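Internal QA ticket QA-208
Title: Verify multi-chain structure generation after dependency bump
Assignee: T.L.

Test input:
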Amino acid sequence: MESLKVSIILAAGEGTRMKSKLPKVLHPVAGKSVLSYVVDNCIANEMGKNVVIVGHKAEKVREAFEDWDVIFREQPVGPGIPYGTGFAVKSAMDEFCDEDLVLILTGDTPLFQKETIGNFLNYVEEKDFDGCVLTAIVNNPFGYGRIIRKENSQIVGIVEEKDASDKEKAITEVNTGVFAFKGSALRNTLDRLETNNSQKELYLTDVVKLLVSDGKSVGGYIIGNEEEMLGINSRIQLCRCEEVMRRRINEKHMENGVTFLDPASTVVDAGVEIGRDSVLYPGVILQGNTIIGEDVTLIGSTRIFNSKIGNGCVIDNSCIEQSVVENEVTIGPYAHLRPNSQLMDGVHIGNFVEVKNSIVGEKTKAGHLAYIGDGDVGSGVNIGCGVIFANYNGHKKFRTVVEEGAFIGSNSNLVAPVKVGKDAYIAAGSTITKDVSEGELSVERSQQKNIPGWTSRKNG
Ligand code: UD1
Ligand code: CA
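Actual output:
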């Protein structure tokens, strides 16, 4: 049988130190789960098969990855059942053959670059090692397994923090948690792991010393950038990873021609696209599948989620969710586009205007304090201050149609279903319940009556 490259990704742990209801590997970093970065890395390195080991809260992890090209293996968990990274890998024993090259990664280390894992695999193949560990030399090795080398620098074992002597604790070369093994070498040693350590776990790291005692070839590959191996065991480490990932993302956008006034306070999710010469002020948050065009200025607490913004728009302190904004549109300050809104070229949505499930035509303006809900608004319409599209009768929602060139006076209510024809005028303060035809003026309010001398009569 032809040999394969198989990845095994460990994601069955409890993640106790996170103190969370959510499985550790599902916590987001720059909007994507920790585990997704690890799986993406395996996919990018063209592994023939990706096996994810699940255990604690397995259902949630399976659910989050049901559309991914991965195979799940369940690690049994519970009182009296062994625990540990070695036991986790054992659960995938029937997913690799003796001839395969098996890459093992922990699901809680999202920062490895694709090239790092690729270079590591190339090195292992070139040297034909039975086993190889990816290591890093770090400033603060606390918490990580220490790499034990003989005088001739040959790796002979890995000692966990909790089992290390003071002398071993002083070692600054640590296990990143990434290994590659020949299938046969891994299989032969996994069965001989023991729980004779301070945590009473089956440690994957012990495979190294077993291979060495079997006379197998064991190598180490030191990565240059210690930042890549940051593991997430606690919220503090989660925050550090977020910082690194965010910096990488923002720097990539800057390299592509986007200006950030203060990258440290600008949150851009992985996968967001931003066009050249756009400018992001501090406090901007871009989430999900968001695409921003060229020459766009985003100011203040603007949050844009799963939306597409065209070229030349200016958005000030506003919230935009699942909407499409075409070119040269100005929004805010303090506007809210709720899902399924589409603003055509040159629209202006001003202070405290809310738009929901509506199409707003070219160059239409709603400058102040309006609600446009379930509306089909044509081009060149003027929507005055305080206009309300009354779209809900308590049971059902209805649409309002406003044709091109219409003028909706301030403080009017358009009670849906209703239609205002082309170039029609609605007088300020009207409550419109019947359709208004093209070119008509509709006034719906009682006539103003002025009573002379009323005040002095009342007081006298
Ligand atoms: C592990 C390594 C340590 C290394 C560090 C790198 C061991 C014994 N220790 O320590 O040498 O420096 O990673 O980040 O391997 N998991 C399971 N099943 C289990 C236990 C854990 O799938 O029974 C998974 C966890 O979900 C996690 C990963 O394995 O994604 C690592 O487990 P964790 O408990 O975080 O190990 P560390 O103490 O960080
Ligand atoms: Ca860890």
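Spot checks passed. Residues 97 and 183 are 6 Å apart (CA to CA).
Status: verified.
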